Amino acid sequence: MMTPRERLRATLNHQQPDRVCLDLGATWVTGIAASAYARLRAALNLPERPPKVHEPYQLLGFVEEDVRQALGVDVVGLWGRSTIFGFKNDGWKPWTLQDGTAVQVSKQFEYSEETNGDILVYPKGDRNAKPSGRLPKGGYFFDAIVRQQPIDEHNLDPNDWADSFGEFDDEDLAHFEREANHVHQQTDYGLVMNFGQGGLGDVAFVPGENLIEPKGLRDPNLWYEYLLLEPDYIRGIYELQTQAAIRNMELLHQAVGEKLDVIIISGTDFGGQEGMLISPKTFRSLWKPLFKQMNDWVHEHTTWKTFFHTDGSIVPILDDFIEIGVDIINPVQCSAAGMEAQAFKDTYGDRLVVWGGGVDTQNTLPFGSPEEVYDEVSERIRIFNSGGGFVFNNIHNIQAPTSSENLLAMYRAVKDSYATAEKF
């Protein structure tokens, strides 16, 4: 029987593992909403305790060791010290989600409530700053607040973005070294780094939610316009970001060496439900060369595998990802146009590791019956795990309204697949 680390590494090398490799909560795109996590703990008959909301933007719950053991999880995440809102997960205090779930949040999490019930969160926990995130009343995650300052379109300067691309400091590197050593010395899990600094134009980060006063273009809607109207300005920002990302990967490698199995380079979305959000031509002009620089650096200097997240229908650029040497694609949104599971596996399965794709989190998992969840999960494992190259996870994060019955059906299907693993 393989250890979790051996199972992940076999999977990443397109070798057939002894059973499907399983992830829950190792990354910010393979996690679980804190309220759903609380229900999962209860359904597994584990001790009740308020989930830690370690990723406040999406209100994700930190997956604890007893849950990993109960489900047979194979991989854990290496996380930075700061959140998307710029404050650190440094100590915890009680809070209550809008659906009534008791949770814990960082002691640096500072918020206010508007008269309509919306929750506003402050960058770096600084109440003197303008709020940078809004949780609508009854909502399940924060939306960024655009705080763009006036722009002189005749004097656009990519260096306005320099504050967004900081270098890891000694405390960051000591943290990464300590956490990576712990995983390797005290556990047999695989390890994935939640890096994401190569996410060029990732609209989750464009507004600068972590900054007190973000400079430059910060409106995601205008961003897409400027791709066509001011491509040199956007390219200049992307080049600065790429240089900073490579420098931080150098520092990260000095700190953790080959203890890392996977690094998430980018979380930029390029697809929607029916097609691309940008043209393939624009992708090849503005993104592809810089993605290649980052991907090449990893493969030339480390043994890490590279992980790229993009939602939606991305068929026109999948060969581009393969051409620049991307190892892993997430989440493979099978409900999007052209992304059907069997066709994807047949066409790309020997060249791209599928991390995700296990069940539809838009419809089946939150709104289907347990039987429908079980059947879909079983079918996806049958397709994607044939010949290796598949890490099971839901398609993006598990949503807050998901029932415990459906969560148990999903993991029951995963475990039932072990009995037939030798047939793949």
From TrEMBL:
<dbReference type="InterPro" id="IPR052024">
    <property type="entry name" value="Methanogen_methyltrans"/>
</dbReference>
<dbReference type="GO" id="GO:0032259">
    <property type="term" value="P:methylation"/>
</dbReference>
<feature type="domain" description="Uroporphyrinogen decarboxylase (URO-D)">
    <location>
        <begin position="211"/>
        <end position="416"/>
    </location>
</feature>
<dbReference type="GO" id="GO:0008168">
    <property type="term" value="F:methyltransferase activity"/>
</dbReference>
<dbReference type="InterPro" id="IPR038071">
    <property type="entry name" value="UROD/MetE-like_sf"/>
</dbReference>
<dbReference type="Pfam" id="PF01208">
    <property type="entry name" value="URO-D"/>
</dbReference>
<keyword id="KW-0808">Transferase</keyword>
<dbReference type="InterPro" id="IPR000257">
    <property type="entry name" value="Uroporphyrinogen_deCOase"/>
</dbReference>
<protein>
    <submittedName>
        <fullName>Methylcobalamin:coenzyme M methyltransferase</fullName>
    </submittedName>
</protein>
<dbReference type="GO" id="GO:0006779">
    <property type="term" value="P:porphyrin-containing compound biosynthetic process"/>
</dbReference>
<dbReference type="GO" id="GO:0004853">
    <property type="term" value="F:uroporphyrinogen decarboxylase activity"/>
</dbReference>
<keyword id="KW-0489">Methyltransferase</keyword>
